[in-house]
Fold:
Amino acid sequence: MQDLRNGIAIRDKRIIELEEENIFLKGEIKGLAHRSKKTEEVMTTTDKFSRVLERRASGWIWYRDRILAPTLANLHTGIIVVLLIIVFRSEFIK
Structure:
């Protein structure tokens, strides 16, 4: 008898899990994401894509402002200094 009750309890638990999964899948089909238990925030797939693209864009902006701009500025400065040395060295030699 106890073995039968244990089997029924396991089956009932599995049925409840399947019902929760079914509800989740219906929500996904409607475009809703799984609710996070911490934030209780519902995000659609479009919102998720937007968030990822914003992160990528902010990464590019950081790279452009912190790395690329100073590097290009130093390169331009070096080129200008070399050109000035070439121009004025030839005038002083004559």
